[in-house]
């Protein structure tokens, strides 16, 4: 717990200090990374802590984004609008989840894929409201009571804070009784049921939280990008965020955020050199997945352990080694 | 009044009839052992009682309440829990974490999504009590998959006991154990408090007669006999089907 607290404080400091060294372009990129990180963490929650691999998660992102775009024409209060987005996407997750969580593995993958595509087509077809395939521009302006947020720096801090809040909420969930139980259900559903847990309630809870958070990310994106299109709910976007989760590290909370950062940085970096960037991107991702099985976060942990252990032996403290042996036994 | 009452339940998998009008009664605190050759339907009977498998006909009562339609997790809250024939644990978690998971099941805060589980002192206290009582405190931080087989079997029982049940179903607690481990387990089962009724599936005859108040013999999905250990020991038919024709040939 102490460790987690320290990491969280470090994370907050990092987010606050970044603009001091970043260019305008960098700040914009970081802002996008925060939004995508929230989205990736929401998918990472159900993939890594509930064992549900969804290929339709962009559906919730799209709901959040379109809620701000469409309802934002009539409602100007940003807090209210964000709340509406979260509630609508959360409710959608709750209602569809009741059906979806009855399936597992490939069937869950397929049914969520179908769900995402359904929303994609819906946004495409509801032309009078959503602008159809042309998309629509977002008229709502983010205002959290400190004036209208328009400058890159202001956006950076808002999204940075949103990211930290999302991270802390997810961390609380993962460490809470319900979170631990959900993880247990992922590991051994039959046993959890035999221990007296209503496993469906927990799966539904995780799915709903995840959907609501994805919707939150979508609504932030809507403000940031000032333009939404049906592509935000397409299955390729769902696939993209799944790639972020996998290269970052499934089964960790922060891994998907790292995955999102790496993905977006690579994408921006490579696309400045060639139009054929998806090809190079694909090759890099294949390599990342092949050699980094647990995801990038595990490399970081590995390096940290090397440094940490070396420090331990320097101090001549054998305590850590004894513990290690015990674990091996 | 009997605590668990199974009345004429039948179960078939497609054309294969596995249980045929099986009836069973367990009184509070009783040690009830179910024996029978492989394929007699013992584990299926457990799965039917705990509703992992729906029954075709018949009824099951716990404390006078019909439970055959209730979901497995519901039964735990009514005071019935079980273990599994094959170890069914959380291998990547430590002994302590396994116990935590089992203990939270009856807590009102099991749906809490905000406050850390690690800060709950009642769970810690109960975990320590269990670890001390069974003298496995030294193993608390070890991942369960690294425990010895015998220790895993013990943990299997401890997880089922965590919900403080009135009746505990043990599915072959000594399966796959060395003779020494079997003796230990038998001793452990005898040490379980009399406030818990036990229904045990067991193959090892020494263990059976060491713990049983009552024995039910199952053969091809039918109850052949249900009686005291003495009755079962002296019954010709049981000798024939369970202990095999071997005794005769030797004689």
Map the helices and strands.
The complex is a heterodimer of chains A (329) and B (251).
Chain A: H1 2-17, H2 24-49, H3 58-71, H4 78-100, H5 105-125, H6 127-130, E1 136-137, H7 152-175, H8 177-187, H9 189-194, H10 199-225, E2 227-228, H11 235-248, H12 255-271, H13 277-291, H14 296-315, H15 319-328
Antiparallel strand pairs in A: 1-2
Helix pairs in contact in A: 1-7, 2-7, 2-10, 2-11, 2-12, 3-4, 3-5, 3-10, 4-10, 7-8, 8-10, 11-12, 12-13
Chain B: E1 4-13, E2 16-26, E3 31-35, H1 42-49, E4 57-62, E5 65-66, H2 72-77, E6 80-82, H3 95-104, H4 121-133, H5 149-161, E7 167-171, H6 179-191, E8 197-201, H7 205-211, E9 214-219, E10 222-227, H8 229-234, H9 236-241, H10 246-250
Parallel strand pairs in B: 3-8, 3-9, 6-7, 7-8
Antiparallel strand pairs in B: 1-2, 1-4, 4-5, 9-10
In total, the number of domains of chain A comes to: 1
CATH architecture title of chain A: Orthogonal Bundle
Please write the CATH class name of chain A. Mainly Alpha
- The whole-angstrom Rg of chain A is 21 Å
Poorly predicted regions of chain B are 246-251
Count up the helices of chain B: 10
Distance linking N and C termini of chain A: 25 Å
Helix content of chain A: over 70%
Instruction: List the helices and strands of chain B in order.
Output: EEEHEEHEHHHEHEHEEHHH
The description of the largest β-sheet of chain A is: 2 strands, antiparallel
Helix content, binned percent of chain B: 25-40%
The rough form of chain B would be described as globular
Class of the domain at 4-88 and 164-250 in chain B in CATH? Alpha Beta
Question: Mind telling me which CATH architecture of the domain at 4-88 and 164-250 in chain B this is?
Answer: 3-Layer(aba) Sandwich
Overall average residue pLDDT of chain A: 89
- Name the strands of the widest sheet of chain B in spatial order: 6-7-8-3-9-10
Overall residue-averaged pLDDT value of chain B: 88
InterPro entries (chain B): AAA+_ATPase, ABC_AA/LPS_Transport, ABC_transporter-like_ATP-bd, ABC_transporter-like_CS, P-loop_NTPase
Keywords (chain B): ATP-binding, Nucleotide-binding, Transport
Protein name (chain B): Amino acid/amide ABC transporter ATP-binding protein 1 (HAAT family)
Domain ABC transporter (chain B): 4-245
